[in-house]
Amino acid sequence: MTPRTSLVAGLFAACFLGSALASPAQDLFDQATFLIGFYYNGPAKVQGFRELRKTYQPQLDQLCAADKDKCGFEAARKVIGNIIQTIGDPFTQIMTRSELADEQRYGAGLGPAAPRIGVWTRPAPQGLVVVEAFPGEPAYEAGVRRGDVITAVNNAPATAQALQSAEAAKNPIALSVSRQGSAKGLNLTPRVAEQSMQPRLDINNGIAYLRVYHFYASDSFSPAEAIYNAVRQATQRGAKGIVLDLRDSLTGYDSEALLAAGAFIPKGGFVYDRRFQGADETHTLENGQLYNQPEGQEKQLENQVSQPILTNLPMVVLVNRYTFNSAEMMAYFLQHAGRAKVVGEPTAGALGISGNAEGPLINGEFVAVASLKLKNLDGSPFPARVTPDVLVPEDLNALSSGRDLALEKALELLK
Predict the structure, then answer these.
(1) Residue 380 domain-assigned (yes or no)
(2) Distance separating alpha carbons of residues 61 and 28, to the nearest angstrom
(3) Same domain, 397 and 271
(4) Number of domains into which the chain is organized
(5) Is residue 166 domain-shared with residue 184, that is, in the same domain?
(6) Going residue by residue through the chain (415 aa), what tens digit of pLDDT does each one get?
(7) Which positions carry the signal peptide feature in this UniProt record (predicted)?
(8) Do 94 and 130 reside in the same domain of the chain?
(9) Strands 207-211 and 241-245, how do they pair?
(10) 147 phi-psi bin (left φ>0, alpha ψ -120 to 50, beta other)
């Protein structure tokens, strides 16, 4: 993902066909179809914005038949959702203002803005299986760990919606938590996360475990810098191997993922295939330095880490179906270079595309559009997703019984 940008106002004004007399639904529909039809450059075949409007206008007319002049945003949002579902690439989506604000917080080294107890969960018949408990947040401080099962939220069966609603209420939450059949009750008060989503390092039995949640960056925080520092610490503490865990990892900035890869590979890169500018843009990594070279121009230094380190420790990368976009790229750079074995599930499928969140839309949301295709430095296209060298499907039953099968395989390979 490239850094989020807003649409150039003059370009939009020239192409936006809505009028002040149209309904809110029509105005939103016209704006979103322009953004998608004009910018889209992903794997799907998408019509230009005028044709896109002609194709989907009947859907909007049907939803707005009862009150065409006053038809609200929700009708247009439903049609836009249908367009995005038909396109079918995971990058192109509607984003809320709060989601975009969270990304900006990630880039500052913080967690989401809304109070939470600090877990990622997956639904299962027995409740919500914890797949991540963030150090420094309420659940972790109360002893909740990966593999625990939340069976009840405020004395009701645990569901994702129930937990989200309880966190949003900002009141203390009563949880029933089970660990391998042993249950306990907890009372947790949600709070705003601070630095809990920064990369974290643990070393056990000579193996460094490096967990990375995203690749968003800013002037004040760099995941790449944190990864170099973690590799340095692992080396100083005598680690004999590294497990890089990118399971459930969010996206971020593509260039940040490439820069982070420099802790493990001396060289690498990718090429942005741009739709409208008519010129490619090449990003290359050389010994902890990141260069940017638009087609026909000189190569320029884009970014660098303050203290580069290149480790040759054996390593394994963990991925799953939720490893997304820039995180997929990190895994791909290491696999493609022959530097690491990848273990887990095929990734989300947003590896070969990137782009921006355009807007704001007139309802305050944004639409993320896959406007860039990625190529290797030799001109070959990126694959759609990372295919693991060793396939280990996620097994929530095993996890809730205390076994992390993908991590076990990683440790086995490192032996």
Answers:
(1) no
(2) 13
(3) yes
(4) 3
(5) yes
(6) 655 444 343 344 444 444 445 899 999 999 999 999 999 999 999 999 999 999 999 999 999 999 888 899 999 999 999 999 999 999 999 999 999 999 999 999 999 999 999 999 999 999 999 999 999 999 999 999 999 999 999 999 999 999 999 999 989 999 999 999 899 999 999 999 888 999 999 999 999 999 999 999 999 999 999 999 999 999 999 999 999 999 999 999 999 999 999 999 999 999 999 877 668 999 999 999 999 999 989 999 999 999 999 999 999 999 999 999 999 999 999 999 999 999 999 999 999 999 999 989 999 999 999 999 999 999 999 999 999 999 999 999 999 999 999 999 999 999 8
(7) 1-22
(8) no
(9) parallel
(10) left
326 neighbors 215 (Cβ within 8 angstroms): yes
Same domain, 183 and 212: no
The residue range of the domain holding 259 is: 200-350+385-414
CA-nearest of 396, 399, 405 to 123 is 396
Same domain as 168, residue 25: no
How many CA atoms, within 13 angstroms, populate the side-chain half-sphere of residue 105?
Answer: 17
